Every structure is written in structure tokens, then in C-alpha cells.
């Protein structure tokens, strides 16, 4: 069955529906199978399907695992929801299709196991690669599946059971991971960029299922330096070079169809679509259909403006292009970029090493050449100097200068010879002559040259060189330089203790040891100690001078002997150098072995080393001329620091001749001590390189100390160049002189620096004087500002402030203080502050003042108008330098309003207490008759007349108590804003009638005469009818209670200017003038009289005012005094009269049929519940009384009463909650 002849998705109305129970279920496939017309398929209608097929399909649909059922000779397939995903876009047409036809593209992989299963043999295959046409293209997939035969009712093979698991994602992911892993591993072997390119092509060629083609482009050398770089094809796979997709050169002008411009500026891979039309019929990749999408990846390196390579890779036409596939290209690009970066860095490092080696060779040649060139002028200098010394006429000054020049010329010759020896040795051109030598005698003789120097330095020199059993084959000149360099190094860095030189015969050769107790070598520097030009930074020695090639030269000379040199050192404990030279001559070059040694000038060479060492000793340097005869006090003082003795002597002599007194020292630490220990010098002249403390450290110490920060300092250095000078000036030096310099230049630079220092000191003195003046003026201004600020605070503070002297006399007050006490400043100043205090408070005030401690106190002050005010004051005594009280400062606040409020609170509290007492009285009064009436009712002989009378008494007293409680509740609700008015248009006449009707019994009982005078004009207001009646009944009740029996009460209404006024007037006891302002307050009440049986709670008028204000009106009272009666007037806003157009229907509520109605009463007060139940039963209702809310909830479900009377305040569950339940 082809897709064109797929089963129609139409409802099947055939009777098989009743036999399709095996398709019951909510899965999509079950519903789809039920909806198809299977009568048009080879399987026929569902009701005709064999039981074996029904059972198998039922099991298939019940499983979540992808399963396909292949049935019958036509291989009709029926599958479940899990298998539907495998079908892709073939679904739903694939349902009911021939399995062979549906999966024809995969038949090369699944055909054989299918046929075996048809023969009854179960097949199981894992991760089989096959191509499925299920999503519009031929797709590479991997599946693990089995094909098992299904027996039908006849015992034959009715169909196949075909569960599958798609493993495409796993297999493809593993293949891509292997590609990235192999690429990364193989690229680690590359050491050139060409190898990186070639290995990348070779590796990726093995993964053409994911990468149909790969192109690698490298920068074209022809475009180097041009603004627009171009790239040439370096390697390719899967497509021929020169094809439309693989041009030999790419550039912005000739992009070859690739996004070159975007690659020049981009950082990530760019997807390039629609390649198939450009490839055409060319073979590209492993499949017949060429790729249609590729990725162009720029390979970048940090710091490069343009990509260092371009990687173009095609995407398979038989795989979906998802995010995982795109990430695969990013990983390839990253691996290629990392390898290219590593190899490029390696190549650059190799080129750098080759360049450094060339530079090193050139430097060695230069040193060799320059050493030779130095020797010629040195020979011409030393010869004349020696002749001049031999022919000197005895002038000490001239001879001293010649000796200085000759000594330093010899030192220069030693340095030149060392450079020449070193350059020759490194270049392998050292001319050695190895002969049998008594190494012990030679070594002992060389070491003895340092004995005098060691004695002068306070060091011990121990030479232990006994005769050896055989002679050593050595070059005498080289051995002398080895020994002298090691001894010179030991002497330089040993400040105390001693030096030991030993020579021994070992098992295989001669062993020379030079040990010292010096400063030692830091552990980090020990491995580099024999490197040429290496110097240990911050090392404390006798001098900071040196070339850094002495030990390097010694090592090279030892190596020429076929020996070794080692060092063992601990910082602060000393150093030991050990030289080992093999016996015999077998290890030596035959052409350098002889029987006679060359002529040696050992004494001259040793003297050069020893003389240089002696110049490091401080004794030879002197201590300056601070105390000499020519140290004239008025000469400018200069401190000179240089570790070279000859330089110290030369500079000292030149500066003395220039009129300076010089204090010369050998290092920075001694210079700093000389500067701080004597008068400040006008100039410090310091070498940069010195032991202990160099010139920069000395400069930093001077600038950090305020006492020496202004001292002029000039640095001396052999380092020439603009950078060296800038470094010195940036560090804070005033000048920087580069050696060599002439005497004239030295004097001129020193004269200028001294003049600069004097100008600087003069400027500093003037600046200091100006600064003092400015500070003084700033202080005066600050004092004025402070005084002004204090005065402003003093006057503007909200509190009263007063200052009195030690005698209590006021000397200063602010305006607020005058305002509080009500007196002008002129009247207060000069008066004793205690005169303002109330006489009753003066003694306490005076006692506190005499104590002399800060205090706070509340006093009464007398004002000029005779009134008294309350103040609280904080008093602080102010003491002078002797501790005595010089004045007193008082801060005063007027607390009269607070005191009045406190008094009012006390009055309110008293009124509350009186009200509570009155409330208790008013509530207890009705209880007595009620209690008596209850006792009478309990007597059996009570007749009906007395029973009615007793009942009336109880009812009357209950109504009285109810009125009291209602008033309390109304006041509570009004004061808390809980009253809601049900406003409507009200006729005041009706309100008056209703109020009079309610009060008439009370008026008649007191035999009062009531007159009513109503304004004939329409009088309507917007209001709550009940509350308006309550206002008038309260006023009428008040009039009736406070008017003696037989009195007169008048009620009048008036309509005036948009208001309706209602007046209640009586001729009763009236209102006292002092009570009239408080008559509308809570609990306010006139004095009771014995003839008033019902006094009330004093809430009526307060409630009247609150209700009137809620209606937007007001109320006020008037009385001429006690016994003169009173008048209360209520004023309410008038409303326009409204007349309804329709006749109002008069509806009279028909009495409900009481018979048969059930009522449930719920109240936790047993007596209340029982009495209410008796009353309702007497009225014809069926009543159930319940006292617990939970019981009531349960009984309501069984009784189902018509009405429930619920108490709100029930325990455990209130009335509202019970109603909701």
C-alpha cells in the first residue's frame, strides 16, 4: 500500500466497533487505528482480525517502547506512539503500508534479517547504519532492533514483532567526538604551521560522513603589509583545488563565493547556504547528493588584526543541521586555532632564541674586539704614567695624583683583560697551555697575597695546601685567575670571621676549596651564580662595584681544565666554592698539552686583585674633613657617599679646592648617620651603586624624613642615557651626574646645586612666614565665624537660653527666653534669675544651683501679667581653667501646654472613674426590682394580678437597662467611626411625631406639659430616620429627667436659610455656667438630686452631638443658670422636598403563620437561651436551645430549623463563623 493509497481517516460505522475493545485506550495511535477504514486494507475489517493479531496489537499499543507489528503476506505495519517518532513525516500515511515499501531505502541493511524472521529465525542487530527517507531527504540513521516471528492460530508465522531503538544521536556524537579527539591529539605533534595544516587535512579526511569537504587557507605572503590581506589555499579534501568552491586565492576583491568580509571582522563560524547549485555535477563528499551548507570559520590569534587562517568545512546532506552539529564545527575551529597558536608561539620563540644567540655571538665578538682596542690606549696611558712616577720631583700632591691615575689605569686594564678572557673562553678561542704544576705551592703563593688585606679587614686567612702526591696538569695563568677570583669574591662579601683555602687530592683529581663566613647567597640566586653578568640584588658586601663576570670566568676556566666547580651556601652563614680538576692529561686537548709553562706575570696580576680589595676597606677611605684644620665653619658642608675610595679622595680634593668642607663615607647608611648626627649639609653627593644602602634608598630615606626632606641631593652614576637621568630625577634627586666628569663640571654642578638649595631654603622660610601669617588670619576669621555661628544658634534656637554669672545675675539671654518669661531683655539683664521663679520653687532652685552640678528641673515662672507658666530647664555650670564655676548656662522650655494637658488627662481620668461608679450604680439599680420580682414569681401562691404586675416591673427595668447599654454601644460605635447612616429624604414633622410618641410615657409619668410648635413650611432633611428620632428622643428625655414634676417642655421647628432648626426648651434645673462648655462631652452630667429616679450615664448629649455632626449639622445648648431651664437647638441641612409621581403602596406585613415553624436558639448563656426559648414556645414556635456552637452545627444538620438565633460572642467559634459553617 503506497502513500497515495493510504487508508482513509474517516469514521468507520461498521459493526466492528463493538469488537474493537482491544483498541480501547487514550493513546493517539489507538484512536487513529480505530478511525481508519481497515476494510480497504489487506487486513480487512477489524472484526475479522484474528485473535493473535488483536492480542499483539493490544500489547504494542500498551507499551511506551517503539514497536512495529508487521502482519500478513502484504507486510502491513501497525505501530504504537513510540514508533510514530521513527516514521517522521511518513506518518500517518505509513500506518497500514507495506513494510518493505515504506522502508525501501533501508533495505540493504534490514532486508536479510527481515527475510530470516519470515522464516522463523529471530534477528537482533545493534547500531546498524541505514538511510531512511522519512523527513523529505535521505537521512543517515543508526538503529538497534530485533525482528521476531509471531505465530497465528494455525501455528504459522502470521507476522513479525519489531521493537526498535534509534541510536543516531549517540553514534553520530561518538563519531564527532572521535574526530575532535583525534585532531587534538595529532596536532600536539606538530611543530610548524605547515604540519598543523597538513595534519588537520589528513585527520579530518577520515570523517567525511560529517565533513564532506574541508578547505584550509593561510595568509598569502604576497599580501603582507597591504591594507587588504589575501589568503591562499594550503590544503583541501573532498573537493578538487581550483573548483568553484575551492579557489586558489581568497580576498575581499575575489571572495570566491565565501563571506570573506565578514570573516575579516568576525570571531565565530558563519553558515554559508545554497552551495549545491555552485557545486553542480562535481563530486563532493561521499554521497551522490552534494552538501548544500558549509561553515566558514575565522582562525584568530590574540593581538592579530586579521585571521591567521580560514577553515571552510561542508555539512553532510544526510544529517539534520541542528545546534549540536553547529557546535561540532566550533570545536573543530577551536582545536585548529589552539594548535596554530601554540605552534606559532613556538616558532616565534625559536626565532627569538636564534636572534638572541646571534646577538650574544655579536656581543662576544664586540667584547673581544673592544678589549683589544682598549689595550692600545691603556698601554699608552700606563707607560707615560710609570715614567712620570719614576721621574717625579717629590711633590706629594703631584705624586698622589699620578698614583691615583696609575692605580685606576691598572684596574681598568684588569677589567679589560677579564672581558677579553671571558669573550675568548665563550668563543672557544682561549689559548691554554697545560703543563705539570705544583698546584699546592702555586695556590698557597696566590692565597698569601691576600693575607695583608685580610689582616687590615680583621679577617682570618687559613691556607691549607699540603704537597700533593702528583702534579696536576693545569694552565698557570688560568689557575691564577680561578684562585684570585674566588679569593677576591670571598673577601668582598665576608665582613667578619675568615676565609679558608684548602687543596686536597681526591680519588680522581685535585680538589680546591675556598670557604668563607660571609653573607652567603640567597637560595633563589644559587642556581644562577655562575651566569655571566648575574648580580645578587641587595647583597651586603664591601662594595657594590663589579662586572658580574668573575665567577662566570672562573667556571669557564675550570671547564677548560675538564673540571667542575660547585657552590654550597646558606644566607647569613657563608659560602663554599669547590673546584675539582682531574689528574693526568687524557682529558685535555693534545695540542694544548706541553712540558714547559708560559711565562707568567703572577705578582702583577695578584697585586691588581689585592690593590682593588684594599680600596674596599673603610680605613683607607678616611672619615672626611669635618674635624680637620681646614674645615672652616662658614664653608658649605657637603656629605659625599661613594664606595670607591679613589672616587671619594678625588671628589673630596676637588670640592675642598672649591671652598667646601666635605664629609666622605663609604655607603648610604653611613651617609644617613652623618646627616642626622650633625648639622644639615647644604648638599648630599651620592653614588647610585653602594653596599648596605644604595643612592636611591638614601634618597628615599631623606625625602621621607621631614627634617631632611629639603636637603639638596645629587646622584652620581656610571649609567648614562636619558632614561637613567629621568629615573633619578623622578625619584626625587635634584641633579644627576654621569661618570666620567671633569673637576670643572663637578664644581659647577655642585655650586649650582648649593645655590639652588639656598634659594629653596629662603623660599621655604618666606613661605613659612607667609603660612604663619595666613594661618593667624585664618584663625581670626574662623574665630569670628565661630562667634557669629554661635550667636546665630543662640538666637535662633527654639529653646530659651540664658547665661548668668557665678552670682546668678543674668548677663545674656536670647529672644526666645524673653518671650517665654514675658519680659524685655533690658529688664532681665543685671537681675538675679531666681526673681523670675515662683516663690514656692525658689528654695529647690537655689539648692540645685549651689551644688555646682548639671541638673534638670521643672519650675513655675511668674509673668508680669500675674500669670504663672511652667518651664523645664537644663542648667550647666561652666568652669574656668581653675575648675571654679565662672558662669551658668540654662536652656529653658515652656511646658505650660503640657502641664495643662496633664491636668486635663487627670480630670478625664477622674471623670472616667466617676462614670464607671455611676455606671455600676445605674446597672445595679434595675437588678434589685428584677431580683425581687423573680423571687415573687417563684412563690406558688402568687395570683395572676400580682404576676402581671411583677412581669411589668421586670419588663420596665429590662427596657431601662437596654437603653443604658444601647447608649454605651452607640457612643462606642460613633467614636470609632463604625456607624453607617442609611440616608433618605425625611420629613422633620414625621421625625418629631415619632420621637414624641416614644418619649410621651416618660413625660406623662412626670406630669410635664409638652407644647409642640411646627413651622408650616416644608421641612425635609437627608438623614437616617432612626438616628434622627434618636437625637430628638435624647433631648426630650434629657428635658423630662432634669425638669421637676409638672414642668413645661416646648418643642419647636423653624426653617431658615437652607437649614431646619429643632429646639427643645424646658424650665427645669438649668445648667451651671461652668458646666455649660462641657455639656456635650462624654460622661458630663449635672449633679443628681434625690427626686430624680433615673439619672442616666451622661452619654445622651454627647451622642446627640455626634449624630448631628454625622448628618452635617450641629447642636448647641443655652441656659441662664441653675434653676433657669435650658434650651437645646439642633441645626440640620435642609433638603429639597421630593414628591413621588407614583402612589406609594401601603404594604402591611401579614403575620406569618407561626404554627409549625422551628427555631434554634444558640447562646452560651444558659439562662438567656432558656428564657428566650420559653418566650418563643409561648408564641407558638417549635424551639430548640443549644449552648455549644459545635453541638449547634451538628444539630442543625438533623433539625434543619427555619430560623436560627445566634449569639455573636460564642466561645471557640463565634456567631459569624457558625453561620458560615
From TrEMBL:
EC number: 2.7.13.3
Chemical reaction(s) catalysed: ATP + protein L-histidine = ADP + protein N-phospho-L-histidine
Record flagged with keyword ATP-binding: yes
Residues modified as 4-aspartylphosphate: 687, 1207
Membrane topology recorded in Swiss-Prot or TrEMBL: Multi-pass membrane protein
Keyword set, alphabetical order: ATP-binding, Kinase, Membrane, Nucleotide-binding, Phosphoprotein, Transferase, Two-component regulatory system
PAC domain residues: 855-907
Gene3D superfamilies, per database record: 1.10.287.130, 3.40.50.2300, Histidine kinase-like ATPase, C-terminal domain, PAS domain
Domain annotation Response regulatory: ranges: 637-754, 1158-1221
UniProt-listed SMART domains: HATPase_c, HisKA, PAC, PAS, REC
Keyword Nucleotide-binding assigned: yes
Matches recorded under Pfam families: HATPase_c (PF02518), HisKA (PF00512), PAS_9 (PF13426), Response_reg (PF00072)
PAS domain segment(s): 786-844
GO molecular function, one term: ATP binding
GO cellular component: plasma membrane
Subcellular location: Cell inner membrane
All residue ranges annotated as the Histidine kinase domain in the record: 369-585, 918-1136
CDD domains in UniProt: HATPase, HATPase_EvgS-ArcB-TorS-like, HisKA, PAS, REC
Taxonomy, superkingdom: Bacteria
Major place of residence: membrane
Protein name listed in UniProt: histidine kinase
Organism: Pseudoduganella lutea
Biological classification of the source: Bacteria, Pseudomonadati, Pseudomonadota, Betaproteobacteria, Burkholderiales
Amino acid at each position: 500500500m503506497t502513500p497515495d493509497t493510504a487508508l482513509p481517516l474517516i469514521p468507520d460505522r461498521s459493526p466492528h466497533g463493538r469488537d474493537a475493545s482491544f483498541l480501547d485506550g487514550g493513546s493517539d495511535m489507538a484512536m487513529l487505528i480505530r478511525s481508519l477504514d481497515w476494510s480497504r486494507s489487506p487486513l480487512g475489517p477489524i472484526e475479522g482480525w484474528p485473535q493473535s493479531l488483536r492480542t499483539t496489537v493490544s500489547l504494542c499499543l500498551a507499551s511506551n517502547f517503539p514497536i512495529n507489528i508487521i502482519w500478513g503476506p502484504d507486510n502491513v505495519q501497525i505501530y504504537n506512539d513510540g514508533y510514530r517518532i521513527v516514521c517522521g513525516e511518513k506518518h500517518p500515511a505509513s500506518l497500514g503500508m507495506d513494510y518493505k515499501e515504506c522502508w525501501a531505502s533501508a533495505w540493504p541493511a534490514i532486508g536479510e534479517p527481515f527475510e530470516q524472521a519470515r522464516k522463523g529465525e529471530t534477528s537482533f542487530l545493534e547500531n546498524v547504519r541505514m538511510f531512511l527517507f522519512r523527513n523529505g531527504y535521505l537521512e543517515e540513521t543508526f538503529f538497534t532492533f530485533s525482528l521476531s516471528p509471531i505465530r497465528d492460530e494455525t501455528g504459522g508465522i502470521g507476522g513479525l514483532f519489531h521493537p526498535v531503538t534509534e541510536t543516531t544521536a549517540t553514534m553520530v556524537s561518538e563519531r564527532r567526538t572521535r574526530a575532535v579527539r583525534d585532531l587534538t591529539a595529532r596536532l600536539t605533534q606538530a611543530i610548524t604551521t605547515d604540519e598543523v595544516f597538513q595534519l588537520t587535512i589528513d585527520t579530518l579526511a577520515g570523517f567525511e560522513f560529517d565533513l564532506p569537504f574541508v578547505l584550509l587557507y593561510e595568509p598569502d605572503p604576497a599580501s603582507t603589509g597591504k591594507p587588504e590581506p589575501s589568503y591562499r589555499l594550503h590544503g583541501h579534501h573532498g573537493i578538487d583545488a581550483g573548483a568553484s568552491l575551492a579557489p586558489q586565492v581568497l580576498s575581499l576583491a575575489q571572495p570566491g563565493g565565501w563571506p570573506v568580509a565578514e570573516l575579516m571582522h568576525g570571531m565565530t563560524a558563519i553558515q554559508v547556504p545554497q552551495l549545491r547549485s555552485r557545486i553542480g555535477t562535481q563530486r563532493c563528499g561521499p554521497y551522490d547528493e552534494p552538501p548544500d551548507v558549509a561553515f566558514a570559520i575565522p582562525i584568530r590569534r590574540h593581538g592579530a588584526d586579521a585571521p591567521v587562517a580560514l577553515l571552510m568545512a561542508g555539512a553532510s546532506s544526510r544529517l539534520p543541521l541542528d545546534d549540536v552539529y553547529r557546535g561540532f564545527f566550533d570545536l573543530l575551529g577551536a582545536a585548529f586555532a589552539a594548535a596554530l597558536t601554540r605552534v606559532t608561539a613556538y616558532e616565534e620563540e625559536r626565532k627569538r632564541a636564534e636572534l638572541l644567540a646571534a646577538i650574544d655571538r655579536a656581543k662576544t665578538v664586540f667584547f673581544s674586539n673592544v678589549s683589544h682596542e682598549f689595550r692600545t690606549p691603556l698601554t699608552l696611558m700606563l707607560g707615560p704614567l710609570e715614567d712620570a712616577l719614576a721621574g717625579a720631583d717629590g711633590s706629594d700632591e703631584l705624586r698622589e695624583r699620578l698614583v691615583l691615575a696609575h692605580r685606576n689605569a691598572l684596574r681598568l686594564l684588569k677589567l679589560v683583560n677579564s672581558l677579553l678572557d671571558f669573550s675568548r673562553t665563550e668563543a672557544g678561542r682561549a689559548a691554554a697551555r697545560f703543563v705539570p704544576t705544583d698546584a699546592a705551592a702555586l695556590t698557597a703563593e696566590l692565597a698569601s697575597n691576600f693575607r695583608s688585606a685580610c689582616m687590615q679587614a680583621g679577617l682570618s686567612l687559613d691556607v691549607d695546601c699540603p704537597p700533593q702526591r702528583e702534579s696536576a696538569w693545569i694552565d698557570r695563568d688560568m689557575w691564577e685567575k680561578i684562585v684570585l677570583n674566588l679569593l677576591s669574591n670571598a673577601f668582598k662579601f665576608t665582613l667578619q670571621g675568615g676565609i679558608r683555602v684548602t687543596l686536597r687530592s681526591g680519588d680522581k683529581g685535585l680538589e680546591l676549596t675556598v670557604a668563607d663566613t660571609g653573607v652567603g647567597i640567597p637560595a633563589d640566586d644559587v642556581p644562577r651564580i655562575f651566569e655571566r653578568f648575574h648580580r645578587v640584588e641587595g647583597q651586603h658586601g664591601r662594595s657594590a662595584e663589579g662586572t658580574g663576570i668573575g665567577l662566570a670566568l672562573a667556571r669557564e676556566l675550570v671547564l677548560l681544565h675538564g673540571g667542575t666547580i660547585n657552590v654550597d651556601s646558606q644566607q647569613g652563614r657563608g659560602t663554599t666554592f669547590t673546584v675539582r680538576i682531574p689528574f693526568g692529561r687524557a682529558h685535555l686537548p693534545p695540542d694544548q698539552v706541553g712540558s714547559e709553562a708560559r711565562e707568567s706575570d703572577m705578582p702583577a696580576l695578584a697585586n691588581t686583585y689585592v690593590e682593588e680589595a684594599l680600596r674596599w676597606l673603610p680605613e683607607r677611605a678616611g672619615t672626611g674633613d669635618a674635624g680637620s684644620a681646614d674645615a672652616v665653619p662658614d664653608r658649605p658642608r657637603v656629605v659625599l657617599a661613594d664606595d670607591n675610595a679613589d672616587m671619594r679622595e678625588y671628589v673630596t680634593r676637588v670640592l675642598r679646592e672649591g671652598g667646601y668642607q666635605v664629609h666622605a663615607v663609604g655607603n648610604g647608611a653611613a651617609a644617613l648617620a652623618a646627616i642626622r648626627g650633625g648639622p644639615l649639609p647644604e648638599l648630599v653627593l651620592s653614588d647610585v651603586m653602594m653596599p648596605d644602602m644604595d643612592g636611591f634608598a638614601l634618597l628615599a630615606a631623606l625625602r621621607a624624613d621631614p627634617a631632611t626632606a629639603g636637603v639638596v641631593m645629587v646622584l652620581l652614576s656610571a649609567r648614562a642615557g636619558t632614561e637613567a637621568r629621568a629615573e633619578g630625577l623622578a625619584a626625587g634627586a635634584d641633579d644627576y651626574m654621569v661618570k666620567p666628569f671633569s673637576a670643572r663640571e663637578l664644581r659647577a654642578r655642585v655650586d649650582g646645586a648649593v645655590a639652588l638649595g639656598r634659594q629653596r631654603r629662603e623660599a621655604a622660610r618666606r613661605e613659612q612666614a607667609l603660612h604663619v601669617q595666613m594661618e593667624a588670619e585664618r584663625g581670626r576669621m574662623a574665630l569670628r565665624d565661630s562667634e557669629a555661628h554661635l550667636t546665630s544658634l543662640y538666637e535662633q534656637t527654639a529653646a530659651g537660653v540664658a547665661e548668668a554669672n557665678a552670682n546668678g545675675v543674668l548677663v545674656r539671654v536670647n529672644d526666645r527666653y524673653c518671650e517665654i518669661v514675658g519680659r524685655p531683655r533690658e529688664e532681665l539683664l543685671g537681675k538675679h534669675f531666681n526673681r523670675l521663679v515662683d516663690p514656692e520653687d525658689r528654695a529647690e532652685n537655689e539648692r540645685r544651683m549651689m551644688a555646682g552640678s548639671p541638673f534638670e528641673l521643672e519650675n513655675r515662672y511668674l509673668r508680669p501679667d500675674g500669670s504663672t507658666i511652667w518651664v523645664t530647664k537644663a542648667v550647666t555650670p561652666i568652669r574656668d581653667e581653675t575648675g571654679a564655676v565662672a558662669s551658668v548656662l540654662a536652656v529653658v522650655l515652656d511646658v505650660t501646654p503640657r502641664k495643662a494637658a496633664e491636668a486635663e488627662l487627670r480630670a478625664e481620668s477622674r471623670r472616667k472613674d466617676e462614670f464607671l461608679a455611676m455606671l455600676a450604680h445605674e446597672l445595679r439599680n434595675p437588678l434589685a426590682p428584677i431580683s425581687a420580682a423573680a423571687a415573687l414569681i417563684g412563690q406558688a401562691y402568687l395570683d395572676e394580678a400580682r404576676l402581671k404586675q411583677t412581669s411589668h416591673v421586670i419588663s420596665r427595668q429590662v427596657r431601662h437597662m437596654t437603653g443604658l447599654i444601647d447608649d454605651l454601644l452607640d457612643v462606642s460605635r460613633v467614636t470609632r467611626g463604625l456607624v453607617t447612616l442609611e440616608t433618605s429624604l425625611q420629613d422633620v414633622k414625621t421625625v418629631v411625631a415619632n420621637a414624641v410618641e416614644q418619649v410621651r410615657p416618660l413625660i406623662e409619668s412626670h406630669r410635664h406639659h409638652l407644647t409642640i410648635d411646627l413651622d408650616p413650611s416644608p421641612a425635609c432633611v437627608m438623614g437616617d430616620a432612626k438616628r434622627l428620632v434618636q437625637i430628638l428622643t435624647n433631648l426630650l428625655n434629657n428635658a423630662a429627667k432634669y425638669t421637676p414634676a409638672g414642668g413645661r417642655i416646648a418643642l419647636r421647628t423653624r426653617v431658615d436659610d437652607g437649614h431646619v432648626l429643632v429646639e427643645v426648651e424646658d424650665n427645669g434645673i438649668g445648667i451651671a455656667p461652668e458646666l455649660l462648655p462641657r455639656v456635650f462631652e462624654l460622661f458630663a452630667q449635672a449633679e443628681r438630686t434625690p427626686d430624680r429616679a433615673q439619672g442616666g450615664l451622661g452619654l445622651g448629649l454627647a451622642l446627640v452631638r455626634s449624630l448631628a455632626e454625622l448628618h452635617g449639622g450641629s447642636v448647641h445648648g443655652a441656659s441662664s443658670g441653675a434653676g433657669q431651664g435650658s434650651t437645646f437647638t439642633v441645626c440640620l441641612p435642609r433638603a429639597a422636598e421630593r414628591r413621588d409621581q407614583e402612589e406609594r403602596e401601603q404594604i402591611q406585613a401579614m403575620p406569618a403563620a407561626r404554627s409549625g415553624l422551628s427555631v434554634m436558639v444558640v447562646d452560651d448563656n444558659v439562662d438567656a437561651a432558656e428564657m428566650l426559648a420559653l418566650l418563643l414556645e409561648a408564641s407558638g414556635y417549635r424551639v430548640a436551645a443549644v449552648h455549644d456552637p459545635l453541638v449547634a452545627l451538628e444539630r442543625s444538620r438533623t433539625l434543619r430549623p427555619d430560623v436560627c438565633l445566634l449569639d455573636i460572642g460564642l466561645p471557640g467559634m463565634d456567631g459569624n463563623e457558625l453561620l458560615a459553617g
